[in-house]
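Journal club prep — side note

Before the paper discussion, L.F. wants everyone to see what a predicted structure for a comparable chain looks like in token form. Sequence:
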Amino acid sequence: MAEARARFADLVRQLVVAFLHSHSGQLEVTLGGPLNVVALVPSTHRPGPAPLGLVTGLGDGVATVLPAARWAPDLLRRAAPHGGSPPVAHMRPHPAAFIVPAPDCASLAGARVLLLDDLYVSGARAQSAAAVLGRAGASALIAPLGRVLRPDRVVLHAEFLRRHAA
């Protein structure tokens, strides 16, 4: 895992920077103003930082494109009620799956947050993260970097892959 992370970190960083460079204007229009914060969707199962937080130099890359936005990779934390697993599950977002530490909560009122997710499967983690940001008074826009396609289960996925096979 560490070898793959090191090998692909530069590619992921370049992908994020290129995406932000090309689309930051539209993201700001969608959110109704300049981005104030760039945060990461935490993992619900792995301890430690969000997977994208392990990409060396990602914060610096984001800062070059969005210099007015605060890079906040640790803004959201997993919530593990009663020492158990967070209540978010596949296809089941839950507003109590993540928390915003108290010192950050006050600074989010009226903030426009770009929420980066490493991989979009069902959207449950990202929606759960956006819910906690909304409760803190922020507007959040989710930007997944990757998408799991299941052509054997979802007809639209199979059609998409057929159209883009060339």
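L.F.'s comment for the group: The chain has five helices and six strands. Keep this in mind when we get to the figures.
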